[in-house]
Amino acid sequence: MKKQLTTLLPLLCAAALFLVGCAKKEDEVPENTSTSTTSTSTTSFGWAASGGSTLKADSSYFVQAYNNIVAYKGGNNNVVDIKLSDLKVGTYSLSTLSGNSLEYVTGNSTYSATGGTVSIGANTGTKLSGTFSCALSGGTLTALSGDFTDIPKR
């Protein structure tokens, strides 16, 4: 029995060392074989006053809780502020009767829309797209038109 034990013991130790000494093979990371493409949308808000050159906003966003669309260019030097009854897809008339308004601030002058429309073409809940066109009062500028694409919710 002692002879069998002395023969068996080294074999058991060798087997234990062999099992412990083997490195575990790391899981292979599969290659990305996805064929889906992601579209990159460009956020933009642009407008032109009385047929002048188009200004592109430095910052633009909408506030769902207040049905408000805002764009800035050069800080507070050029601001378009649109307030609507809703931000659902559709066309909204700008007038004091409808409660929908557009104000345009440029330099020291503030203009108000006296008529026109804002059309919301898409509202995903986090991004808003559409167009606007209106007559202005309050100074030398008489009209404002523009568009906005994928402006973010704030």
What does this protein structure show overall?
With 154 residues, this protein is mostly beta strands. It has one domain. Helix content is 13%, strand content 46%. The chain is built from one helix and ten strands; from the N terminus they run αββββββββββ. Strands 1, 2, 3, 4, 5, 6, 7, 8, 9 and 10 form a ten-stranded antiparallel beta sheet that branches. β3 and β4 (68-73) form a beta hairpin. The longest helix is centred in the first third of the chain and has 20 residues, at 2-21. It is globular, with a radius of gyration of 33 Å. The N and C termini lie far apart (83 Å).
Topology:
Elements: H1 2-21, E1 44-49, E2 55-56, E3 59-63, E4 68-73, E5 78-83, E6 90-93, E7 101-106, E8 109-123, E9 127-137, E10 143-152
Antiparallel strand pairs: 1-2, 1-10, 3-4, 4-5, 5-7, 6-8, 7-8, 8-9, 9-10
Q: Quick check: average pLDDT?
A: 85
Q: How many domains, as an integer?
A: 1
Report the β-strand fraction as a percent range: over 45%
The residue ranges in which pLDDT falls below 50 over 5 or more consecutive positions are 32-39
| Dominant shape | globular
Rg calculated over all Cα atoms: 33 Å
How would you describe this structure in keywords?
globular; 1 helix; single chain; mainly beta
